[in-house]
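#dry-run=false #mode=assembly
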Amino acid sequence: MSAILETRALSAAYGPTRVLQSIDLSVPERGIVTLLGANGAGKTTTLRALCNMMVRVSGEIRFEGQRIDGKATEDIVRLGIGHVPDGRGTLVSLSVEENLRLGAYTRRDARVAQDFERVYSYFPRLKERRRQQAGTLSGGEQQMLAISRALMLRPKLMLLDEPSFGLAPLVVQEIFRILRTINEQEGMSMLLVEQNANIALELANEAYLLETGRIMLSGPAATIGSDESVRRAYLGY
Amino acid sequence: MATLETSRPATTAAAPLFAGLSLRVWQIIGLAAVLAAACVLPFIISSYQLLLANQVIVYAVALLGLNILTGYNGQFSLGHGAFYAIGAYTTAILLDKTGIPYWATIPMAGVLCFAVGFLFGLPALRLEGHYLALATFALAIATPQLLKYKDFDFLTGGVQGIVITAPDAPGGLPLRADQWLYFFCLLWTIPLFIVAWNLLRGRTGRALVAIRDHPLAAATMGIDTARYKSMTFGVSAMFTGIAGALGALLAQFVSPDSFDFFLSVRFLVGIVVGGLASMAGAFFGAIFVEFVPNIADLLSKAAPQAIQGIVLIGCMYLMPTGVMGLVRALGHRLGRRVAR
Amino acid sequence: MQAFLHQVLSGFATGGIYASVALALVMIYQSTHHVNFAQGEMATFSTYMAWKMITIGFPYWAAFLLTLLFAFVLGVAIERIIVRPFYKAPVLSVIAVFIGLLLIINSLSGALFDYTIKPFPSPFPSDAWYGGPYLSPHEVGMIFVTFVVLALTFFFFRFTPLGLAMRAAAENPVSSRLCGVRVGWMLALGWGLAGLIGAVAGMMTAPVIYLDPYMMFSVLLYGFAGALLGGIDNPWGAVLGGFIVGVLQNIAGAYLVGTELMVTVALVIIIGILVIKPSGLFGRPIVTRV
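#status=ok
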């Protein structure tokens, strides 16, 4: 299986401060890869670096074999990478439906109306609230909205930044179940950044462990999950 | 690329710089030389040139006032022409309508402008950046209108303005009226600059800059931001008001249209060119303000504004710290090279 | 009573101009958090373009539409070329740049078209059927044109994808980029639209107060007052604010302070709002993080 996303010696810095030191990772097609690590390890920075937002990036990034490092964020997105940012990035003054319509902004094909229904079928609560102002949604609903907004792009690869953050366990389960469904039914590749290592390892095929900007460990999710040091440090047992 | 620098870095001013004397000593020598030259000037240049030189000095005081507020304290004023006008009209009206001697009108103008500035500064406390610029913009546009208001005509002389005569030198001194006026202005300028220098390099100055750069952090550090900001407004207005009063004596005439929005613009350009947060820059700025628009006016009516506009944008782009910033930067490089 | 009604309706007509200027100001403020001090001059310069076209023989509405196009392109060009390098610059630098822009455009108007006052035609003939006891045909026309512009703007932002993208870019550029929106161009478009709206305001105002390079100075101020009154981050509040300022101005002028102190009234309004409720009647209160 070829990799839909590959990085080589990816480094990132905020101003003079280097946060990522030469990261090599790859996401196989139709696969789910999770990036684990503690606070400040550089997980969010990695996703930002992939989309060239807010950081100075060096190194190689290949999407579907083509170099994308150096491109503008909006151009990277247009190539088929959806990004669900940390903090959800809800456009609070727009309605739910407008948020979704914005997600489909770059699409010219006729299947957009279909995609609204698809997204509403995954998240019926969004359909109920579709005319509501997005800022009034609960945290869980905003997370669903953020994922849906990225889905409206019909991306080939989806980047998710801590989708479980601040959400009740039941809501998290629901969201992750839907993510698995999307991956299985539509073959969408995913790169998932999570602090909640347990649930991430359940979903993912492969895992990388990031510590102070370096990849410490990588391999199949099950192997990483049973690794002694990972268990102690990140899984709590 | 355009950043306002904080106060000068800690160079070793006592270390030997050149010919065995430290930077500090050279600064003092330089200052003394400038002062000496300034005192000699009225006797070696023509009357007209003296008028120009005098106007430069007056503008320098006005610009110093604006710089204290905008450059050091970060409160943007597009309306300092209004304070200049208040100072000028105070002197003119007092001389026209009362028997108060000319030299007494200057501090009175200063006090009045301080009060007005302080009062304006109070509501301005809640305004940042654009909002304050807006409010002062409105002030600048409203000023000529207020001065022309018919009901105030009995005081302000309306559109015609007020004509005043320049004072003669006090009895006994062998000076022409214009030479005396020059020294009179110097007598105000030098102490004002010393006062400003003292204020700005000490705790007050640091507080002002802290408020400019990190207002919320400054407040949490215990700096009474509100008090400083409104006092700064008052002091700034006072300086510019005194300059206006001196300017009125110099021009021997005040009229509403000399104090329009474009005067405030000239002041803004002056501090940008001379250097925000720089005292010596006030003179460079004043030279610019005095000469460039007038010379440009000879080219065409539109030229002064065009040139000032281009200068403003150009300075922000290339030389955000103004002439003095450039001089300082060069000075540091020179200093390091010589000290090696 | 009749006189009062006349003042109110007349004020409503000029209020339409202020509402348009206020809208243009808010459009730029919303997306950039900068106040465009050069808005008035851009409008004046565009109006001069119209004047030139009419003078050399273009029919009014042709000149009108071409001027709108010109104003749009001018706005886009100014944003891309002059304003863009300063997006990350400190507030004071940006204000200085806008004032510089004000000066340059003002002097261009003066240099190209000289400083003499010029009459500007109104497309609404003075004996038209829609004039009445309270409003001249031009005033009726002003109100009509203002409403058309406002309605078109509303529909554009509410119901077109581009309008949605512009609103999104103004509110949350990061999330918008993640949806593929070219935020930079959205800002440029915002400036273009603001320029266009300003040009309409200029062309409607010129027949009343005559065309000279300083024409829009006070109109800009009233537009500011309206925008602040309604809430500088709320476009429709700003529009309402503009109408209110227009009516207030006329009433104050006729019954309170006389017409010579009009700008001072605007000053008082501006300071009053900034002191009492800086976010305006309908704006959101401003919250700052340390």
